[in-house]
Amino acid sequence: VQLQASGGGLVQPGGSLTLSCVASGISLSGRTMGWYRQAPGKEREFIAGVSSGGLTDHVDSVEGRFTISRHNAKDTTYLQMNSLKPEDTAVYYCNVDQLRTGRPRITRPYKSWGQGTLVTVSS
After folding, report:
1. 97: which DSSP letter?
2. Closest Cα to residue 47, out of 79, 24, 75?
3. What gap in Å lies between CA 98 and CA 28, rounded to an integer?
4. What is the CA 38 to chain-centroid distance, rounded?
5. How far is it, in rounded angstroms, from Cα 26 to Cα 64?
6. Residue 101, C-beta contacts closer than 8 angstroms, at least 6 positions apart
7. How far is CA 79 from the centre of its chain?
8. What pLDDT digit, counting tens, does each position of 22-58 carry?
9. HSE of 17, CA atoms in CB hemisphere, 13 A
């Protein structure tokens, strides 16, 4: 699988960004797509997932501010990020569940993460 995330950049606190990620090399039918992030000095963490049927899940730290979606025909997932905070600064990655669970959380991500896209929230 190849994962290409894009859309990151520098944004002021309170601002918005939309990330995109295209997955290729596998069939996404029935597979959950999701977003992770890795802040400096921290481990990579799951933040949002969307099942092939459109069920979504967001972790508490981004609930109400971030919204995940997907366009199945384009093999793409999006992450709309609003009300950004300095603590959202991280490299953002997407991934796909190797298993077809129907749940909006990734059980087993692929090992190939791609380069990710850097989001910096700073004034």
Report:
1. B
2. 79
3. 9
4. 11
5. 31
6. 32, 51, 107
7. 6
8. 999 999 999 999 999 999 999 999 999 999 999 999 9
9. 20
Mean pLDDT of the chain: 97
Residues 106 and 32 sit within 8 Å (Cβ to Cβ): yes
Contact 92, 8 (CB under 8 A): yes
Helix (H) or strand (E) segment spanning residue 102: none
Site of tokens 């899940």: 57
Distance, in Å, from the CA atom of 76 to the CA atom of 14, rounded to the nearest integer, reads: 26
The Cα 111–Cα 11 span in angstroms is 29
Q: What is the pLDDT of residues 63-85, one digit of tens each?
A: 999 999 999 999 999 999 999 99
Q: Cα dist. 66→17, 19, 61, 85 in Å?
A: 10, 11, 9, 11
Cα 94 to Cα 46, 50, 64, 70, 97, distances in angstroms: 9, 11, 20, 12, 10
Question: How far does Cα 92 stand from its chain's mean position?
Answer: 7
